[in-house]
Amino acid sequence: MGNNKDITLLVLAAGMGSRYGGIKQIDGFGPSGETIMDYSLYDAIRAGFTKVVFIVRDEILDTVKERFEPKLKGKLKVDFVIQALSTFVPEKYQNTGRTKPWGTSHAVLCAKDVIKEPFAVINADDFYGRSAFKALADFFNTESEGAHAMVGYTLKNVLSEHGSVSRGCGEQDANGYLKSVVERTTIVQEGGKIIAKEKDGDLELSPETPTSMNFWGFQPNIFPLIESMFEEFLKENSDNPKAEFFIPLVGNKMIQQGKGKVKVLGGGDIWFGVTYKEDKEEVTRKIQELVDKGEYPAKLWS
């Protein structure tokens, strides 16, 4: 299908992969060695996206360029942006003890100078499914009020059998807009229940909670908002080497302050990803199942 508007896909590929034990963004999972990113790019092209921006660390920039530029030539405009520890961080807040980037909202902010159109944000190491990309493209082509969007997934369907996960847990109103979204950084399954391990004790979560898997849709006016919120975040957290500026923090504050609305979209009917090395076998099997069903060709870019 063709789109009426230019829409960019922003791929967050700068993560360290500490729990996975390797660079999971460029690991092969498909039958012809495809990365998870390959399937997201393929689905985005089918949905009518016109550009992709990769957010990467400096040390993997050349590898990502070599892998993706040739196959995307003539299909999408391509840009690369480095997420460095110092990017958009005023000198007075730079922390020499920090070893990892400032999180997903910081990664989005890094693309401020190269994105001027509506854009979707995804994680490089999550498989979202074709319907999610179509839902977001359709939203941008019909949205006239300047609202943002989040593809909603059901919490019980986006957990790992191999350890705790971090998820943005949401609540929506009767019209399908987000009322709140909170990043729960340690969610586990215990005794048939889903539990968030919080500083002030365990919190049981509903299995049906609408959940952010970092598949968001933003209007370009989000950038100055993120930038101002990031400076506030740094004021409070610059001396904490583990603090992360997550997308749900921005979404939640924006909603609370009445600075924007976020529509919860359907389309989140399939998701899988890799947090731990043990997840790889299962993800490879699920992709093969989709190939066997004819959802994707065995050689994606042939």
UniProtKB/TrEMBL annotation:
Keyword Ligase part of the UniProt annotation: no
Gene3D superfamilies: Spore Coat Polysaccharide Biosynthesis Protein SpsA, Chain A
GO molecular function, a single term: transferase activity
Keyword terms, alphabetized: Transferase
Transmembrane residue ranges: none
Family annotation (SUPFAM superfamilies): Nucleotide-diphospho-sugar transferases (SSF53448)
Record flagged with keyword Cell membrane: no
Origin superkingdom: Bacteria
Location of the Nucleotidyl transferase domain: 33-171
Protein name: Nucleotidyltransferase
Record organism: Chryseotalea sanaruensis
